[in-house]
Amino acid sequence: MNFAELELLRATAKESIKLRLGEEPSDNFKYHVLVCGGTGCLSIGCQNTLDAFQKAVDSHGLQDSVKVVVTGCMGTCEMGPVITVFPEGYYYCRVQPEDAEEIVSSHLKNGKFVERLCYHAADGSVQARKSDMTFFKKQKRNALRNCGLISQTSLEEYIAMDGYKALAKVLQGMSPQQVVDEVKKSGLRGRGGAGFPTGVKWQFVLDQQADQKYIVCNGDEGDPGAFMDRSVLEDDPYSVIEAMTIGGYAVGASKGFAYIRLEYPRAIDHYNKALCRAREVGLLGNNILGTDFSFDIEIRVGAGAFVCGEETALLASIEGRRGEPRPRPPFPAVSGLFAKPTVINNVESWANICPIIINGGDWYASMGTEKSKGTKVFTLAGKITNTGLVEIPLGLTLREMVEDIGGGVPDGKAFKAAQTGGPSGGCIPAAYLDTPIDYENLAALGSIVGSGGMIIVDEGTCMVDLAKFYLGFTQDESCGKCTPCRIGTKRMLEILERITKGLGKEGDLELLVELANSIKASALCGLGQTAPNPILSTLRYFKDEFEAHIKDKNCPAGVCKMPRKGLKS
Amino acid sequence: MGAECKCNCDQEKKLDALFAQYKGNSNGLIVVMAAIQEVHGYLPKDFLVKTAEELGVPLSDVYGVATFYAAFSLRPRGRHCVNLCLGTACYVKGAPDVQTILEQEMGIKAGNTTEDRRFSLDLVRCLGACGIAPVLTVNGEVYPRMTAEKVNEILAKYE
Amino acid sequence: MATVTLTIDNVKLEVEQGTSILDAAKQIGINIPTLCYMKEINAIGACRICVVEVQGARALQAACVTPVTEGMVVKTNSAAVRASRKMTLELIQSNHPQECNTCLRNNNCELQALSEAMRLTEIRFVRPAQSHSKDDIDNSSPSIVRDPRKCILCRRCVAVCEKVQGVKCISAVNRGFETIVAPPFDQGLNDVNCAMCGQCSLVCPTGAITEVDDTGKVWRALDDPSKHVLVQTAPAVRVAIAEEFGMEPGTVSTGKLVAALRRLGFDSVMDTDFTADLTIIEEGNEFIKRVTEGGVLPMITSCSPGWIKYIEMYYPDLLAHLSTCKSPQQMFGALAKTFYAEKKAIDPASIYSVSIMPCTAKKFEAQRDELTDSGYQDVDVVLTTRELARMLREIGIDWESLPDEDYDAPMGLSTGAAVIFGATGGVMEAAVRTVYEVITKEAMPDINLTPVRGMEGIKEATLKVGDLEVKVAVAHTLGNARKLLDKIRAGEADYHFIEIMCCPGGCIGGGGQPIPTNLDIRLKRIAGTYKADEDLPIRKSHENPAITAIYEEFLGQPLGEKSHKLLHTHYVPRGVYRKPEGLPDKVPSGDHH
To answer: Are the beta carbons of C478 and C161 closer than 8 angstroms?
Structure first.
């Protein structure tokens, strides 16, 4: 494929999805019915819904005017199976196979939408179309731009949505330095957790003299409660492939590796299919788009170790070794994969690259806050009405996130805290609900943006138990290389286990804090250095809960099994 | 994943091809081991010795890698792999109770295989299906919104 | 050379670019404590004891792996640094058996010394879980004991096994708190591709890897009046044992060593150096025979048992290159229960033969099945230098006031050529001194073969011996040995004669030597070795009158029938992980017994 052929394909492909974009289509289709095929919906039976739908469409003889498309995750995982009907964008939730007939006969045949299947807000109001839904209204989707809108592995639909426009632009007239400058200008910061400026990283690698450089995509998404990378890889794999190709051009690398965790078989499958297709049409491999630029990507499947999300551990794993982090410097930009200069970015970071190239760094930087530019994907989960994937401009307040997008805490319970950043992060109590979400603010509160996991907990959650959960996680996932993490997290966990069994004693909290601060300061890698965060932040806001466990042998939330009062053990 | 070795000759050929591809190249260690695990359901010692010899990696390193990654098993697995997600969302929504019942019903602790090799039970880290927490998978099939009450009914489906 | 300027503890200094904070701090008189770090071999920043505060850095930095940068401001002793180091130490100790008094490394343990220096007074954790138990102790090997309870995961042993010896029979196993350094598949060291060299035991900062302690066996023999207990001492022991008593490394203390052994009650104190001279005669003649009669070349020395096990495992196809000479220890052992027994009219069954060696692999060698040519196990027990020192401390030896005493006849007299067996290149030099004169029948103009001396990994020399240009090579460490063997396998080695020693620096750096053994100490022991050579009246093996005597009285001819039976041996192709196919059971396959 060359540039002209790409544009020709785009023109044709665009015609077929115009209807979804609110434009007048030139074909005969009146409706596009998009069935969410994300992992959430898939596991609650969207396949049956899809089959029923197809059948109903056929039986009504609508196959020429109604197009049924399986897409990736639309974001509202709690409401699956989900269906969107274009051109209007009506949004049907929890659509069972038996609902298909009604939607077809009422909506697709007679133009009357089915109100009972639409989203009902907490106040009982109906938000029928996507554009009516508070869940979507406050979002701005860059990384997730195609998720839920196009068929997951369709190159044509990807191209129709401006796919490969960025790569064409780059190859047709941007120097590597110009590409790097654009990314720098965007202010994009690493979306995997550390938040290091992506453009700066690229510049380091561009500046290195080396016979070989590498591009790596970190798809070892492991934070419990974070699944945005899976969604991007499953639902929009080409966006990552195109971005990595651009990265290769920008820094002078001809080879890339996508490291995807084993627990995401569909992501591996979709990404692999997309790789093959891209290679087949000349968008990957030798002489991409007829130019003299060549680049290819290999998938490496993670073998089940959380620590491999740490970049040096991930590189060790690609090299076939134990995923143990090593000290930096040297940074991967200088000596990375196979000791060559390496750009390593997280999936979500990659997913932002193409829009930045197409619209310019300034455009991206116009979103977000002073130091935290652009948009960030969060996974909203736990005790929240609307569980799902959410992409917001940084700077939105936590309250908007929880109450407007998330629809509040269900079952009339009270919001207690938002846990952000997974096992490396911390909790934010109700008093800070009006904090604008960005890297700096969350750090100041003792938490982090991290990879974007956001777990909402209500009054029924014991914060000591939650802290113990996170610590148990990191302790279990510690690689065992450095002392503070290997033994320190074990000792912290032992103390917390005693406390939650009613065996806490005076001095435990002081020792816990001393230990936590020491581990934070002295551990070798990010996993160890951030492992104490959930403890420290919980102690900061919920110290009274710890004290109730230790002094009164009482779990205020009623979660921990305490020795019964009045009984001597 | 988790299926018993069916002595599939094609798969053996695939392994041989991988051995050839990575001859003398330690970088292929995890790729080769993953393939062995896929074909045999676990990592038989003879194959790890062969891996060490073919790739030129010390056997101690092969073993070090095998014991580092959760995906690798040095013992044969059960006929059915039961994975309970213990991600945060699943945890706060009651996965620990499901774990208790699963362990009770199978008579094993998580991370083990029943004596009759019917089930292997593992706790896994966030499957990314937080919207339908707590999540259980059996041989890859997903069971959403798990409760302790559903356990028996689900296990009964797998002989 | 580019330099950078930085500030450490308020002192401004200029150091070479690329210097670590650890090394830079040394220049202002600060020794930052370390555990996992080992210069040029292990810099992994794992233990986190050497952390320092670097201005502007989010977390503390490990001084061993952090290079200095221009304008860097470092604090090596801030409150945060001290608190962190102490906590890290407390954590290590919380997973370490508190049994220092009964540990082999008591009073010579880096962890213990550090805990003392940091005044660690208490371990505050309540019943802390222990990652490993007594059941995990590996007693399988005749040479080395592993006690995983005491392992602090510094991985110095792994690094030395991998980077110096090229073996790596142990590696990090498991993950997280359960991580341990171990051989694969829960096997013992005896069951895997361990060369038994014991370098791991030299670098272990604690008592997690030690020599097998055989002192009890020796005490029992000494206490048994029915036993005639004799002892031999290896060349490298005499330049190292004094370190155990606070003397300078390299101090030559042959006479004191003899006296000390007599104090222990040995019935006869003789010298492995005698059989080192004998080795030169046998090996020299074997070499001449191979050169003149077209035998397998290059011929390779066979004194170092770690090396022998290594070639049997990794290069079984090249075993025919090995000299068939037994090591001096085993020649001595075979002669002790034949020649010596005959001469002294002692029933060989009552002889208990002890050897004092710088080496853990010698323990393995002594119990090899084939080394029983006297009709008994030729050497009954091997003690390392460290174990001997332990026995001497037990009886309260005051090293400095010991007199110098002489070895007993008939296997006590030796030459400078034998002494230098202890240093890398020494066997080659000793062999050349003899081969030259046997072939040319002329005195060698300069008997100091300096090109093969010193710590360089592989050394070469070419010398003219009569009409023959003899090309020799010397390698020490198995890593360097591998390079030469690969050359031989590829048919690219045009050497006639190769000396290989298993340990860095040769036997003076052996796995049974005093701890610490490092480069500086190795160099001093080597210097001591050559000084001992120069100080001896006879410096060529063939001029040793005791050697002439044993041929006249007992052996007959070099390579003769008796020599063949008692002084030569065969080797066993072992393979690395399994027995190699298509090779005979032993090499040479022709039986000589």
So the answer is: no
CA-wise closest residue to C562 among C235, C278, C293, C231:
C278
Q: How far is A515 from chain C (nearest CA, A)?
A: 7
Taking an 8 Å cut-off on Cβ atoms, the answer to whether B63 and C185 are in contact is yes
Q: Which of B52, B64, B68 has its CB closest to that of C577?
A: B52
The pairing of beta strand A426-429 with beta strand A415-420: antiparallel
For C296-319, letters b (16+ CB in 10 Å) and e give: ebbbbbbbbbbbbbbbbbbbbbbb
**What's the CATH number for C216-567?**
3.40.50.1780
What's the domain range around A182?
Answer: 161-365
Residue C462, strand partner residues? C471
Interface contact A515, partner C, CB < 8 A: yes
The verdict on C66 touching A (C-beta cutoff 8 Å) is yes
pLDDT at C535 over 70: yes
Handedness of CA C80, C84, C87, C93 (dihedral sign): negative
Nearest-CA residue of chain C relative to B57? C168
Looking at chain A, the number of H-run helices and the number of E-run strands are 23, 15
d(CA C520, CA C539): 26
Token reading at C109: 């343990």
Task: Measure the CA–CA gap between C506 and C361, rounded to whole angstroms.
Answer: 13
DSSP per residue over A191-254, as a string?
TTTT--BHHHHHHHHHH---S--EEEEEE---STT--HHHHHHHH-HHHHHHHHHHHHHHHT--
Q: Which two tokens mark B27?
A: 């970088």
CATH architecture of C3-93: Roll (3.10)
Q: Are residues A346 and A262 in the same domain?
A: yes
Whole-angstrom distance, CA of residue C7 vs CA of residue C3:
13
Nearest residue to A73 via CA among A159, A137, A156, A146: A146
Confirm whether C312 is a catalytic residue. Answer: no
Q: Is A422 left (phi over 0), alpha (psi -120 to 50) or beta?
A: left
- Identify the helix (H) or strand (E) that includes residue A92: strand A90-92
Domain count, chain A: 4
Q: How is residue B3 annotated by DSSP?
A: P
Q: Enumerate residues 6+ apart whose C-beta is below 8 A from C521.
A: C243, C249, C250
Residue B4 reports pLDDT greater than 70 = no
| B 21-50 → C contacts, CB under 8 A | 45, 48-49
Contact C472, C426 (CB under 8 A): no
The torsion region of residue B2 among left (phi > 0), alpha (psi -120 to 50) and beta comes to left
Tell me if A412 sits within 8 A of A383, measured CB to CB: no
Residue C507 is a catalytic residue: yes
**One domain for residues A194 and A334:** yes
Which CATH number goes with the domain that contains A213? 3.40.50.11540
For the whole model, what pTM was predicted?
A: 0.95
Question: Residues B23-70: pLDDT tens digits?
Answer: 999 999 999 999 999 999 899 999 999 999 999 999 999 999 999 999
Residue whose tokens read 């059989």:
C275
Tell me the torsion sign for CA atoms C190, C193, C199, C201: negative
Determine, for residues A225 and B88 on separate chains, whether the beta-carbon distance falls below 8 Å: yes
Active site includes C283?
Answer: yes
With a CB cutoff of 8 Å and minimum separation 6, the contacts of C212 are C139, C141, C142, C143, C144, C145, C360, C363
Can you read off the two tokens belonging to residue A396?
A: 């939105």
The CATH number given to whatever domain includes residue A67 is: 3.40.30.10
C488 sits in which H/E element: helix C478-489
pLDDT band at A450 (very low <50, low <70, confident <90, very high): very high
Phi, psi angle pair for C62, to nearest 5°: -80, 120
How does pLDDT run across A3-19, given as a tens digit for each residue?
Answer: 999 999 999 999 999 99
> What is the phi/psi pair of residue A554, to 5°?
-135, 130
Question: How far apart are alpha carbons C276 and C255 in whole angstroms?
Answer: 18
